[in-house]
Structure formats: C-alpha cells, structure tokens
Amino acid sequence: MNLGQYNTLTILRETEPGLFLGNEQDEEVLLPNRYKPEDFRIGDALDVFVYLDNEERPIATTEAPFLTLNTFGYLRCCDVNEHGAFVDWGLVKQLFVPFREQARPMKVGHWYIVYLYLDQKTNRLVGSSKTNRFLTQEGMTLEKFDPCEVLVTHLTEKGANVIINQKHQGLIYIDDIFEDIRSGDKLTAYVKKVREDGKVDIVLQPVGYRSIEPNAAYILEELEAAGGFLPLSDASSPDLIRQELGMSKKLFKKAIGTLYKEKKISIAPEGIRLLDNE
Fold first, then answer.
1. Exposed, middle or buried by CB within 10 Å (0-12, 13-18, 19+), for 116?
2. Which secondary-structure segment (H or E) carries 97?
3. Taking burial as the number of CB atoms within 10 A of a residue's CB, which of 149, 193, 247, 274 is the most buried?
4. Which residues, in sequence order, are bridge partners of residue 59?
5. Among 124, 7, 132, which residue's Cα sits nearest to residue 72?
6. DSSP run (H or E) holding 49
C-alpha cells in the first residue's frame, strides 16, 4: 500500500465494518462503511486514499485530502498538545506536526504551509512547516514562458514567495503583482526568467508577446460588459488601469495597440470604444 497516496485497489470481500480492498502484492486495507459505494461488486476496482488511522493501521477513504505524499498544502492548525500540533488536512484523523517540524510554534486557528512526508523510522505520515528543506532548484527544467502551478507561501516587501510545481522556489516581484493575492493561493503562473544561480522569477500573466492576445481578449470582454466604452486610454494613470483591469499600463498599451491594428476599437483621449458600437 502506498501510504499518503491514491491507490487503485480491488474489492476482496464485504464484512461488518466495511469492505476489504487488496492489491497485487496481497496487501489488504479496510474501507469503512461510511465510504462504501452504494453499488459495488466483489472484484470491482476502487480509487482510494490510504493513510493511518488513530491506531496507526492503514485505512482507506474515498475522501480527498488537501495534500498528498511529498506535496505542500495550506492547512489550519486545530489543536496543540505536549507532543506537537494537529492540522486539518481534509480527513477524519488530523495530521500531526511535531514540534521539531515547526518553523515557528503553531497556534490554534492559524494557517500554515505544510509538507506531507513519510517518516522512514516510524513509517508514519507526518507534516512539516519547515518547507525550505523539501524544495530544490536541482533538476529544474523550467524555461522562460513556461506555464506552471504555484502556491503562494508568504508576502514580503520584495513580493510573493511561491512554490513552483510542488518542487522549486520562486518569487513574484511586487512590480509584477497586479491583483490581490494571499498566502495559500494556488495559481497558474508563468516563468519570467530563470537566473544563473537557479532562482526563478514568476509572473501571473503570460510573458512578453505571449501576453498580448489574452489581455486583448480580456479588454474586449470588459468593453462588451461596459456597453462598448471604457474611460481608459494611453493617457490614463497606471494606478487607474491597474485598479480597473488588474494589469500594468505597459500590458494595457500593448493590448489596445493590438485591438486597434485589428480595427476592433477606436482610441481617443477620453477612452477606448468598440468599433461595432459606433
């Protein structure tokens, strides 16, 4: 059984406490009645998540946890005792985070970036908020323009620190943030630059010429929603453009330039207008 992961298992038999499932290695695990499907047959295959119950025995569930083995999640601390903290990871049994695995002492009700790993000594699933030691820039294949999935870890004066594709560290510089983002946000982003030292600059909009089309389409949608006119132009302030459209003035000018060349809009000092509406 792959603890902390989804397993495709076969229904072996039905018992009073639930269904026993098995794999090709003749390992068995209980799927309690609360998760038993309404319609099933012995021999059917089920996709289940396997973890340890309160007695440290493997147990199966059809519930979806907030994170799986060797991944990061944004979790709320539910309890703290003399051994460590317990966080909600979407399952009945809470995830244990020992004191030694806490970057700073956890407090009930607070949220933390947590990594799920398997303790090789005890064979138990454990959480850790010391996330940096589970990240590496080695083996990175990211290149400029590549799309990626990021998890925002924390905000600083420089910008937003992120985890890229559950493996690497990255940074969205403050000048490249044009929307409200917070710790724990999971976002689709793009690689702006991979530096020689392995550091990665991330942006939330496609980079360079690749950003023109989606931003132009977005402005068209906003124009249509506004009845064909927006009081924004080349003369508008960057703050106003960012407030109204969530993009920089540079991206805005590129986008309306594209729309103007395609004869979809007219541009005047007072704003931009859909040509179809004139």
1. buried
2. strand 95-98
3. 247
4. 30, 51
5. 132
6. strand 45-52
How many C-beta atoms surround the C-beta of residue 144 within 10 A? 13
Angle between the N-to-C axes of helices 249-261 and 212-225, in degrees from 0 to 180, rounded to the nearest 10: 80
CA 186 – CA 234 distance, rounded (Å): 33
Is-contact 12 21, C-beta < 8 A? yes
27-37 pLDDT, tens digit each: 999 999 999 99
* Angle ∠(67,15,88) on CA atoms, nearest 5: 20
DSSP code at position 67: -
Tens of pLDDT, residue by residue over 226-255, are 999 999 998 899 999 999 998 889 889 988
Domains in the chain (CATH in brackets) are 5-61 (2.40.50.140), 72-132 (2.40.50.140), 147-204 (2.40.50.140), 209-277 (1.10.10.10)
Residue with the two structure tokens 């991979």: 194
Phi-psi domain of 191 (left: phi exceeds 0; alpha: psi -120 through 50; beta: other) = beta
Are 49 and 58 in contact, with CB atoms under 8 Å apart? no
This model's pTM is above 0.70 = yes
* CA–CA distance, 219 with 274 (Å, rounded to integer): 10
Query: What whole-number distance in Å separates Cα of residue 223 and Cα of residue 217?
Result: 10
Tell me the Ramachandran region of residue 115: left when phi exceeds 0, alpha when psi lies from -120 to 50, beta otherwise. Answer: beta
Structure tokens at 7: 């397993």
